[in-house]
Amino acid sequence: MRAMTLSAALLPLEMERRNIPEPGPGELRLRVLACAVCRTDLHIVDGELPLPVLPIVPGHEIVGVVEAIGSGATGFRLGDRVGVPWLGHSCGCCAFCEDGHENLCDAPRFTGYHRDGGFASHVIAEAAFCLPLDMHETDAARIAPLLCAGLIGWRSLKAAGEDAHRLGIFGFGAAAHLVTQAAVAQGRTVCAFTRPGDPRTQDFARRVGAAWAGGSNERPPEPLDAAIVFAPAGELVPAALRAVRKGGRVVCGGIHMSDIPAFPYRLLWEERSVVSVANLTRADAREFLDFAQTHPLQVHVRTYPLSQANEALADLRAGRIEGAAVLVP
């Protein structure tokens, strides 16, 4: 098998040749059809997240075909097309898991972080955390971004609240372009905030359904009911607070963000709130994939061969991608 491997933070990924692994008890071996490139992968490669395991193969938005089934693994057959998301394991016995919040598990294992991920030709995954992909969409590259950009976006959208009819989105990348379409399908109005002076991204936001698009230094036409911050820039939290109405909510949807600068209390006053979203649950995944099946989303992708994983990361880092980057082994 082939795998793009990170040996240390801030170093380029290196192509390795390995023996094809055998699945252990409760595991599946998948032949990878596509793996989207997430900003979390960039945070891992750039050393912005602590690295519990090295070397590691990144990638956690995986679409694959079941090639081998370990003992005790149930729910899948050889040849099934399945998805592998960020949450690769939860303990099932901590207070959070028992309360239905496996996304906050005390002993989780994340795909492409604690265990090798999908920047490879093959991957081993725990069957209980794989997702069946019986979808109308047949292009694996267009399904892959749903498995994190879509899922974390969906969880962020739910955190914004059902009464958030005017929604702002700060940072218009892979998650934002999917969440915008989902929000519009729910009857919400979306305002997109990009880097100042970025008409290309603002035009893209309008093309996927945003009613208004402007720079993060601008005010929307009307106060927002809620805002989601996907960009890893802490200074956008006060900007989002300025844009929401009294009682509004700001949702931080990323796993990593630069420090939030000090801001006057008056921005938070009048019962505004700031919350974060962490990881995902399998229930989130089932709910969102069902929604995507009944409300088909236009998934914009730029594909790269596996050997160009470093180029895909560089393009993501530089903001050169509309939608999502996807590796296709």
UniProtKB/TrEMBL annotation:
Molecular-function annotations in GO: alcohol dehydrogenase (NAD+) activity; zinc ion binding
Keyword Metal-binding found: yes
UniProt keyword terms in alphabetical order: Metal-binding, Oxidoreductase, Zinc
EC numbers on record: 1.1.1.1
Tree of life domain: Bacteria
Residues of the Enoyl reductase (ER) domain: 8-327
Signal peptide residue numbers: none
Gene3D superfamilies assigned: Medium-chain alcohol dehydrogenases, catalytic domain (3.90.180.10), NAD(P)-binding Rossmann-like Domain (3.40.50.720)
UniProt keyword Nucleotide-binding present: no
InterPro entries linked to this entry: ADH-like_N, ADH_Zn_CS, ADH_Zn_typ-2, ER, GroES-like_sf, NAD(P)-bd_dom_sf
Required cofactor(s): Zn(2+)
PROSITE patterns for the chain: ADH_ZINC (PS00059)
SUPFAM superfamilies the UniProt entry points to: GroES-like, NAD(P)-binding Rossmann-fold domains
Gene Ontology cellular component terms for the protein in this record: cytoplasm
Enzyme category, top tier: oxidoreductase
SMART domains: PKS_ER (SM00829)
Similarity field: Belongs to the zinc-containing alcohol dehydrogenase family.
The protein, known as: alcohol dehydrogenase
Source organism (scientific name): Variovorax gossypii
Lineage, highest ranks first: Bacteria, Pseudomonadati, Pseudomonadota, Betaproteobacteria, Burkholderiales
